[in-house]
Design a protein that fits this description.
With about 70 residues, the chain is mostly helical. The chain has helices spanning about 10-15, 20-30, 35-45. It has three helices and no strands.
């Protein structure tokens, strides 16, 4: 069963996902979506960075996502 947020998930609009990462994304989205870092944040009603990956890592997408300093 695929993630219920698949059609609206901003990750696909926000991140230019490299070809070799697509399998990782789909492993979560149509596999273990309950383990996805984004899914957990959405369900908890928590804010999260645009670059948050399913693995919980944060991809730096622009200056707004980069740590200060
Ligand atoms: S990245 Fe996570 S929240 Fe987004 S569709 Fe995939 S499993 Fe769902």
């Amino acid at each position: 069963m695929c993630c219920p947020y698949l059609d609206e998930c901003s990750m696909f609009r926000t991140l230019a996902i490299e070809q070799d990462m697509k399998h990782l994304v789909w492993a979560f989205c149509c596999g273990e979506h309950a383990d996805c870092g984004r899914y957990k944040k959405i369900v908890a009603g928590e804010q999260f960075p645009a670059g948050l990956m399913p693995t919980g890592e944060i991809m730096l997408t622009d200056s707004a996502d980069r740590p200060a300093g």
